[in-house]
Amino acid sequence: MSSVAAQEGRRTSVAPAQAPVSSDRRRLSRKHREWLAAGLFLAPDVLGLLVFVAVPMVLSIGLSFFQVSGFGSYEWIGLGNYRRMMDDPLFWDSMKITGEYVVILVPVLFCVSLGLGLLVKQKLPGVGVYRTALFLPYVISLVVVGVLWKFLLDEQTGVVNRAMRAAGFDGESWLGSPSLALGCVIAVMVWVMMGYYMIIFLAGLQEIPKEFYEAAKLDGAGPWTTFRTITWPLLRPTSFFVLLMSTVAAITGGLDLIFVLTNGGPANGTSLAIFYIYQQAFGFGEYGYASAMGSFLVLIMVAVSAVIFKFTRGGRFDDGE
Amino acid sequence: MLQHGNDAERPARPTGTPAGIPGTHGHGLGSGTSRRRFLTATAGAGAALASPALLTGCGTAQAKGGNLQFWNFYGPQRSPDPAINAQSKWFTDMVAKWNASHRQQIDLVYLPQPTYLNGFKLPSAFATGEGPDVFLLSPGDFLRYYNGGVLADLTPYMEKEAVDDFGTALDSRKVDGKVYALPMEVEPLAMFYAQDVWEKAGLSEADIPTTWDQMLDIGDKLRTRTRAGLVFETNPGYYQNFTWYPWMWQGGGDVLDQQGNVAFDSKATRQALAFWQDAVRHGITPRTLPAAGDVISGFKGGNVALWQQGIWNVSSFKAFAPKYKYGVFKLPLPPGGRYVTTLGGWSFCANAQGRNPEAAAEFCVWALGSMKDDSIDRMVDWCVGAKSDVAPRASALERGAAKGGYDSAIMKKFKDEIFPGGRAEPRYPPVVYKAISDAIQGTMLAGRGVAGEAERAARSIAAYTKSYKGASLI
Fold it and tell me: Of A205, B27, B366, B468, which has the fewest CB atoms closer than 10 Å, so is most exposed?
C-alpha cells in the first residue's frame, strides 16, 4: 500500500467512528483523551507495581525498625536492627561474597552473551536450533538447574570429574571446596542466563543498519575494526540495558540456585547477602533484622545503578538520543 | 490490630510505641518545617506503624473457626515409594478416625518436605497469624515456637501414666514440667556400612571399629576414586549439627553445662571438630555428599563404604533395595570416651493461637499420648509398620517388639544396642545453632584451626545467652 493510500485508508476508517460522538466525549479535548488512554493502559501495571512492589517495600522498611518474633509480636527498636547489622560479621562476609559474585558474574555474562549474540547473528545453517538450544537453560527452573549441576559436579561420580580423570587429572570437590564453590555457582549462573542476554544482544545487533557494515567493508575494514567502530558504539543502549539488568539480577537473585546447590556452604563460602537475609527471615524468624538488611541491600543496588547510569549516560548516544 | 484475638487471654506483648518514632514528637508545623516535609515525615512514620498491622493480616485463624488444619510432610500424597504411601495412609487413617468420632473436624494438609523443613511456608503462616492448628515440629525448632507463644500445653489432656510412659523422650519437649509436644518417633544415629565392600576388602564382623582411629583406618582402606570411605554430613544446617553432637558428647563435651553456662570451648569439642577435619583432610570423607545425598543410591551404586545415618533408612532400604546387604554399628568412641548417640524425631504440636486450641491439643493426645490401646497401637503402627523407628513410649516399644517389629537383625541392633544410651536432640535456638554450624563448617571444609573456631563459637553463644529471654535452653 502506498503512503497516500494508507492515509486514505486511515481517513476512511477514522471518519465513521467520529460520526456518533456522544456529548460527553465532545467535552474531552484530544489531549485529554490521549491522557485518559495512556492512563488506562498504564493502570494495570502501575497498580501491580504498587501492590506487589512499592507497598511491600515501604512496609519492609517500616518493619526494619521493629524487633519481630515471627509469631505476631512487634517491638519498636528504632535503629536497633541497623546497629546490629553494622556489628554482624556474617552479614559483612555475605556482602563481600556478593561483591565478588557481582564483579565476576556481570562482566563474564556480558562478554559471553555478546559473543553468542554475534555468533547466532551469522547466517549459519540451523542457526535457529542453536539459538533455541542456548536459550533453553533460561526457561528451566533454577531448582532443577541446581539439582542437575549437583549431579554433574559430584565428587565421585559427576561427569565433570569423570572427564577430568579420563584426561589424566585428579577430580576436584567443586561444590565442597570454599575456593571453588563460588566459581561454580557463577559458572552455572552464566550457563542459565547467557541465552536470555544473547537474545537481547541479538535484537540490538539486528537494529544496526546493514548499510553501515557494507560501507565499512567497502572501506576495507576488518572484523575487529568493524566491531570496534560500528557494532560496539551502536550497541550502547542494549549494552546499558544488559549491564543494568544483570547487575540488579546478580545482587538480588540466585537464591534458589544457592539453596539447592550449596545451601550457603561450604563454610559460608557461597552465602550471598540475599541468602543470608532469607536465612535470617525464614530460617530464624528474624523478620525485622532481615528487613533492615534488605533495605540496606536495596540502597546499595540503587547506588550501583546510579553509578552505571552515570558512566554509561543511561545508554544514550553522544548526541543525547 | 497487633494482637489478634488473644489479648484477653494472654499478657500484652510489647508493641510499636508511637512515642518512640522520630518526627511525631515535638515537631509542630513551626516556621522551619514545610508542609511537604511534615507530610513526608507523617507518611513515613505511618508506614512504619502500619507495617506490623498489615503484615500480620486482618485476622487470626482463631477468629475464623471452621475445620482445624493439620500441616505435615507425609500425606495425603501418592508416591512410587511404597514406604511413603504407607506413611501417608497412616496419617489419613488417623485423621479419618478422629473425624468419624469428633465434632471438630480436621483437614490434613500436605506440604512437600523441602517446603516444610527449610521453606518459608510454616514460618510465614505463623508470622501472619495463619499458622496451622496442628503441625509437626523438630526439637531444633521447639524453643523458637515455644517462646513465640504458639505451643499449647498438652499436659491437662494427658494422664500421668501416659507422661511416665514417654519417660525421657519428653525431656526436650517440656518447659517447667509441662508437655508442649508429643514425639511420634525416636530416630537414633548409627554407622551404616556396605557389606559387599566390607567383605571384598577381607574384613569381617570382628573388624567393626570401636574407636575413631579404627574407623578412619577402615574408611581409608575402603575408599577408592569413586567410593567414599567414610561419609559425614557436609551441608550446613540443623541436620549437620544434629549428626555432629554425639562426637562431641562422647568426649564429655557440651554446648551448655547443667547450669546453662557456655561450655562449648572444651577439649571434647576441639577433639570432635578435629576428628571430622582429619577425615576430610586425609580424603577419607568427601567434601560433598555422594549421590547428591541419596543414601540408597549411594550405597547401591557402590559409591559409599561407611555413612553416618539414621534408623529411618532401614525402611528406605526395605522399599528400594530389599536385597541390598548392609550392616549397622554403634558410633565408635574417642580414647576414654563414653557411648552416646543423638536421638532425633518429630513431634505433634497444637497451636495455642489456632482456631480451637483445646480441640487441637486433645487431638494430639488422642493420637499419640493417651493410655488407650488405640493410641498406643497407632504409635506401634507408625514406628514398626509405616516407618522403621524406635517408639518413644515404653508401652509402644514393648508392643512393637511383641509384634515382631524389631526382629530383624538391623532393627534389633538399633533397639538393643544403638538406642540405649542415646540423648535427645538439643533444642538450641538459631543463633546457637548457627555459631556451632559455622565452627563445624569452618574446621571441616575450610580447614580453619579447631581452637580458634571453638573459641569464636563459644564467645558468640555466650553473648547470645546473656541477653536471651525465654524457656531454658537445656
Answer: B27
Cell of A134: 542456548
Query: CA separation (Å) from A247 to A110, A300, B323?
Result: 10, 11, 52
Residue A38: other Cβ atoms inside 10 A: 10
Q: Indicate if B179 and B71 belong to the same structural domain.
A: yes
Count CB neighbours of A320 within 10 A.
6
Which residues in chain A are contacts of B3 at CB distance < 8 A? 72
Label residue B140 by pLDDT band (50, 70, 90).
Answer: confident
Q: How many CA atoms lie within 13 A of A24 on its CB side?
A: 0
Give chain B positions within 8 Å (CB) of A178: 445-446
Contacts of B16 in chain A (CB under 8 A): 66, 74-76
Q: What secondary structure letter does DSSP report for B304?
A: B
Query: How far does B122 lie from chain A, in Å, by closest CA?
Result: 9
Cα R_g (chain B), whole angstroms: 25
Answer for the pair B306, B386: CB distance below 8 angstroms, yes or no.
no
**Nearest chain A alpha carbon to B12:** A73
For residue B96 the three cell numbers come to: 479419618
Q: Is A283 near chain B, with CB under 8 Å? A: yes
Chain B residues touching residue A76 (CB < 8 angstroms): 15-17, 20-21
Q: What are phi and psi of B329, to 5 degrees?
A: -145, 160
Does residue A3 surpass a pLDDT of 80? no
Alpha helix ranges (H) inside B261-420: 267-281, 295-300, 313-320, 357-364, 373-380, 394-402, 409-413
Q: At what angle do helices A89-121 and A236-252 cross, to 10 degrees?
A: 150
Q: Answer yes or no: do B127 and A157 touch at CB < 8 A.
A: no
On the question of a cis peptide bond just before residue A125, with omega within 30 degrees of 0, the verdict is: no
Domain-located, residue B455: yes
Distance from CA of B307 to the nearest CA of A (A): 15
- For residues B88 and B176, membership in a common domain is answered with yes
A311 three-state secondary structure: helix
Cβ distance A267 to B448 less than 8 Å, yes or no, reads: yes
Examine the fold and report which residue of B394, B416, B438 is the final residue of a domain before the chain moves on. Answer: B416
Q: How confident is the model at residue B19 (pLDDT cuts 50, 70, 90)?
A: very low
Interface check for B41 against chain A (CB to CB < 8 A): the answer is no
In chain A, how many domains are there? Answer: 1
Rg (CA), chain A: 26
Residue B359's pLDDT band (boundaries 50, 70, 90)? very high
Q: Which three cell numbers stand for residue B145?
A: 515456637
Taking the Cβ of residue B147 and every Cβ of chain A, the question of whether any pair is shorter than 8 Å is answered with yes
Chain-chain contact of A72 with B303 (C-beta, under 8 angstroms): no
The number of folded domains in chain B is 2
Tell me the per-residue pLDDT of B22-68, one tens digit each, with 9 for 90 and over: 333 333 334 445 655 555 555 555 555 555 555 554 445 555 669 99
Distance from CA of B22 to the nearest CA of A (A): 9
Query: What is the rounded CA–CA span in Å between residue B209 and residue B213?
Result: 8
Domain that holds residue A243: 88-315
ipTM: 0.82
Task: Classify burial at B183, counting beta carbons within 10 Å of its beta carbon; exposed 0-12, middle 13-18, buried 19 or more.
Answer: buried
